[in-house]
Amino acid sequence: MPLVRNPTPTVEPRAPDERKPVQVLASGSDEERWIAARSAAETPEGLSLLTHALAVERVPRVREAMFTALAKIATPESASVALPYLRSEDAALRTQALDALRAMPAVAAEHLSQLLDDSDPDVRLLACEIARALPTGDASRVLGELIEKETNSNVCSAAIEILAETGDVASLPILARCAARFPNDPFLTFAVKTASGRIGSSER
Amino acid sequence: MPDNSSKRVLIIDDAALVRAYYRAALEAHGFVVGEALNGLEGLEKLLLEPFDLVIADINMPQMDGITFLRTLRSKELPVSSIPVLVTSTEAGPHDIAAARGAGANYYLVKPIKQETLAEYAAIFCGRPR
Amino acid sequence: MTDPPQMTEDEFRRLAEFLYRRTGMVFTESKRYYVERRVWERIDATSSPSFSVYFAHLRSEVRDEVEQLINAFTVNETYFYREDHQLACLTTDLLRERVATKRPGDPIRIWSSPCSTGEEPYSIAIWLLENWKDVDTYDIEIVGSDIDTCVLEAAAVGIFGKRALMRLSPEVIARYFHALDDERWQILDDLRQSVRFTRVNLIETKETRPQGRFDVIFCRNVLIYFDDESRRIAAENLYDNLLPGGFICLGHTESMSRISPLFEVCRYSEAIVYRRPEELRRAR
Question: Is residue C261 within 8 angstroms of chain A, CB to CB?
């Protein structure tokens, strides 16, 4: 029968790139930069290379590989390289940065209180997603604290979305107070009602 | 109830409560609703089932709303020209310009009243109120 | 044994929303009773005193609880011609695209990873022999990989029981297997030797790289269980293992929307399939 061949290994190992990673990241093709980015986590000066390369990289999948490398390094420093991109005007970059932080939850959490205190409500809103990765009790506590002092109703709504998943009885009065503070936000009113329902029924 | 029967709206938003809120608004006005959690799932749903309108958020995991729009518009398929209403907490001129540039038909800033959403859905599905 | 306590509607919604976010699987109200029973099995298995405690445990993703729970919902048997609509898509659509730029005698490489005890790669081989008119035209290589060396050894031996063969017609069984006894059939030597089995951990680039680049990859029911970081790395590895324009197929409940933005989404027949983009020509 056909298809019967002793498969010979048809794989030619790719010749290793002789150039230094910094050279490849500066001047290589898309594919070469992608490969260099992927292995940057293993080189000693990887974090510094990634920081500089990310600032100028335009190709989405190369940027994605750089963010993955930051997540592999998984230190508070590598998380802090991703953080500024949460403020980007480019929605794709914001998503890539947040996804990278989601992939390094422990070190991202170390930056959380600073992010939830940021003067930019858009940053505080995205930071709520980082709280989602905390253990259930911590997430509820941190987001409850945020809601109590938050002046932007969209940020509150983002926090309430997560409390619908993690919240406990202690969250209920916080939610009620929040709804009272923003009576003119119809979505927030709906969100408080729905989240309170989710929480209320499972305290048995 | 206004007759929006058989008009199908796809809601793309990563917040479950937002999707529930829009669903309640649209179903109350007779629309049939589908959901997706991010731009990539939105594209999959559009490839598999017919819809008349998309309501898409901007900040979502894996694929944001702007990238979703660009990708959708660049495919040479009938579904590529479906009306897309972008909703976002972001209200800056840059975001609105980016959405328009990517091919959005309209842009609404959150929070949105349920009545408002249903009105715009009716308009973009071809039924002026 | 007493009836398990019932989940409240809101507990069910919490769980359904979490699972939808995490895996893309949708659990509607109509599935509630079924889900409840499985959840209470897991609550028992994890010695959780309540749904709340169990849910916190599930959210924290310790000890693969998401996988344990999903496995409680899904049928996990592996058998020949499982998800045969993907095999049909392979011959009707995917290979047609791949050979558009190939010449007779050119290689076609297909990867089944994870391959478990071999049903999937052997199914691909048999399906091609049975259904693809061009099976002789090209140099087809099928590789089966798994992290578990025990299943790989079993795959290489190629002995299967009745249940594994239940979807195959008697004619197909007669053509490609010989019966060892009433209960066991072995893949014919020629076919056994035409699939190469290798041990690979999908998260380790050092292990995935040497497998080379493929025209089509079947990577079913494994990616969705990895944590965020591992999902990204595995997706990048799989991208690296695809030729430009090559295809990757996931399990029917899985979606790249929960895994990675690297791949283009395509629809063929009734299936969603993903693709590494073609190389762009340099526009200069």
Answer: yes
In a domain, A160, yes or no: yes
Tell me which chains share at least 3 CB pairs under 8 Å with chain B: A, C
Tens-digit pLDDT profile for residues A113-168: 999 999 999 999 999 999 999 999 999 999 999 999 999 999 999 999 999 999 99
Architecture of the structural domain at B8-124: 3-Layer(aba) Sandwich (3.40)
Compute, in degrees rounded to 10, the torsion defined by CA atoms A135, A136, A141, A147. 110
Do residue B17 and residue A164 have CB atoms under 8 angstroms apart? yes
Identify the chains in contact with A, defined as 3+ C-beta pairs within 8 A: B, C
Helix intervals (H) in C142-196: 149-157, 170-176, 189-192
Instruction: Name the stretches of chain A with pLDDT < 50.
Output: 6, 204
Task: For residue B42, give Cα distances in angstroms to A54, B24, B48, B67, B123.
Answer: 28, 19, 10, 11, 21
Please state, in angstroms and as integers, the Cα–Cα distance from residue C248 to each residue in A126, C158, C218, C262, following that order. 32, 25, 6, 11
**Whether A199 and A124 share a structural domain:** yes
Which residue of A lies nearest to C109 if distances are taken between CA atoms?
Answer: A10
**CA neighbor of B28 nearest in space, from B113, B128, B124, B126:** B113
Establish whether C38 is a catalytic residue.
yes
Q: Domain tally for chain A?
A: 2
Helix, strand or coil, per DSSP, at residue A37: helix
The pLDDT of residue C47 is: 94
In this prediction the ipTM stands at 0.93
The verdict on pTM exceeding 0.80 is yes
Residue B64, Cβ density class (10 Å: 0-12 exposed, 13-18 middle, ≥19 buried):
buried
Q: How far apart are CA A9 and CA A4, in angstroms?
A: 15
C134 is catalytic: no
Q: Which residues of A touch C209 (CB under 8 A)?
A: 14
Chain A closest-CA separation from residue C228 CA (Å): 5
Residues spanned by the domain of C154 = 84-275
Name which of A187, A192, A193, A194 to mutate to probe chain B: the one with the most chain B Cβ atoms within 10 A of its Cβ: A187
Contact A188 B111 (CB under 8 A): yes
SS3 breakdown of chain C: % helix, strand, coil, rounded to 5?
45, 20, 35
pLDDT in tens, C1-33: 455 667 888 999 999 999 999 999 999 988 888
Catalytic residue among C82, C98, C109, C146: C146
The partner residue sitting opposite B47, judged by closest CB among C256, C258, C272, is: C272
Q: How far from A101 is each of A179, B47, C167, CA to CA, in Å? A: 30, 30, 45
pLDDT of residue C71: 87
* Minimal CA separation from A7 to chain C, in Å: 6
Give the residue from A53, A75, A110 where a domain finishes.
A110
Q: Is the dihedral of CA A83, A85, A87, A91 positive or negative?
A: negative
Indicate if the pLDDT at residue C283 is higher than 50. no
Cα separation, C87 vs C81, in Å, equals 8
Give the structural domain span for A174. Answer: 111-204
C197 in the same domain as C162 = yes
In this structure, what DSSP letter does residue B41 have?
H
